[in-house]
Amino acid sequence: MPVPAMSLLRPLALALGFSLALAGCQTVAEAPAAAPGAPAAVPAHDNLNATAWLQQSAEAAMSHRQTWRSAARLLDAALADPAWDALTPEDRIAPLAGLPPAIIVDMDETVLDNSPYQARLIRDDARFDDATWNAWVAERRARAVSGAPEFAREAARRGITMIYLTNREHALNADSRANLEALGFPPVGEGQILGLGMATPGCEPKGSDKGCRRQWVSQRYRVLMQFGDQLGDFFSIADNSPEGRAAGLQRFDAWVGERWFMIANPTYGSWEPALYGNDRSLSPEAQRAAKRAALQY
Fold it and tell me: Burial level of 204, CB count in 10 A (0-12/13-18/19+)?
């Protein structure tokens, strides 16, 4: 006897409904809701690792101390040699004879650690600007780069003048002086901080280049050593490309670790725009793409 069509369809419909309900249950099981109290996603920031390294790693402190301590061992030899000079021929515009000894140091990330300012930029997902930077300088809360105050005191005991050649604005000298002295650096006199915008008669500076100020120092001192965290702290860079920077350094390679000392700073520097053609108008994404393209595999 034939089974009525409706009798056949009824169990099929029930089976299909059960299968769909089961599939719905499986979908919910595969994508559970976030557990209560789960941490929120942490936003990415290009400078996070570098700033954390400077602030929290023993490796950063060790790197900085070994640089300052190595230089301190050479102070007596530098003083004893009347021909010892750490300025390039382009910056040495006055004869050495009879000039008192000095050491040129950059300020930021060389003797003063501004990583809290970098940390604020990470926290606020912001970029460097003059207003927030000048406000930070006015707080006078920069830390000492490890080993720098001890070196400065060793130099002072030998009668060597420390010249702070900085691209902080010259108008901020009082804040910089107070910050240095609070950290145990020897007293900083007038004429020891050469900030951006300082008058250099007979030499017209180009932007933030320090060449005119180094020439100013050369007329007054025999420079035993230079310290910085960027190549431009030692000489004027004619071609700020990776190749141009390497060629400029090669001229004075013999001075590295003897008259010139680099303080490790991975957070910023002129090395970075060199990787994207010095075009600071590029978006952060375009800059990041150019830096990734510069990587070697």
Answer: exposed
Is 93 domain-assigned?
A: yes
User: In this structure, what CATH number is given to the domain that contains residue 205?
Assistant: 3.40.50.1000
pTM above 0.90, yes or no: no
pLDDT of the chain, 297 residues: tens digit per residue: 333 433 433 443 334 343 433 344 444 444 455 566 667 778 889 999 999 999 999 999 999 999 999 999 999 999 999 999 999 999 999 999 999 999 999 999 999 999 999 999 999 999 999 999 999 999 999 999 999 999 999 999 999 999 999 999 999 999 999 999 999 999 999 899 999 999 999 999 999 999 999 999 999 999 999 999 999 999 999 999 999 999 999 999 999 999 999 999 999 999 999 999 999 999 999 999 999 999 999
Contact 82, 96 (CB under 8 A): yes
Measure the CA dihedral 221/225/228/233, to 10°. Answer: 50
Give residue 213's domain range.
48-266
